[in-house]
Amino acid sequence: MYTLKDTATHTQEIKKSRFLAICGPVGNADEARDFIARHSDPTATHNCWAFRIGQTYRFNDGGEPSGTAGKPILQAIDGQSLDHVAALVVRWFGGTLLGSGGLIRAYGGTAALCLRAAEKTEVIATVSGTVGCAFSDLSLIKARLAGMGVTITGETFTGTGANLGLQIPKHACEAVAAAILDLSRGRAALNLED
To answer: Where is the Impact N-terminal domain (predicted)?
Structure first.
């Protein structure tokens, strides 16, 4: 699975109607709705959108005939194995009717071109965890965790050391736990959160 690194846009004209696709990464459904609201154009004829976040997805035809806009946009997202992505396609009507097939191709095609051109990054499933360690082990543990793709999300100091909040790649949990035990000579252990 992949997601977008940043917001991307693509414009095309089809039979005098102008289509603008705006696609971007989102973390949850609320962020997706905010993205869509922020980029929608009230002066446009139609603002059609879709988003996918894991198993959660939504789409909206924005006033176009049912199934001719939102669903093709979602299919463009799914067709490129993207996750945590919102896509909005704005249409300014040019006077020529496109028909159902034309609308499906226009909305899905504009979204697909935008998504295809956007820079992508791999989505890596992570697990949250914590580790408490002594000051003598702290710098070594932090250096090793950084080399294992672990992100330190928080650091609080105690009288004898520190507690670290971690985001660990799911596939590396066992290796990270073993490294922490090894580096601290058994004095520190990884605690995974549910």
So the answer is: 15-114
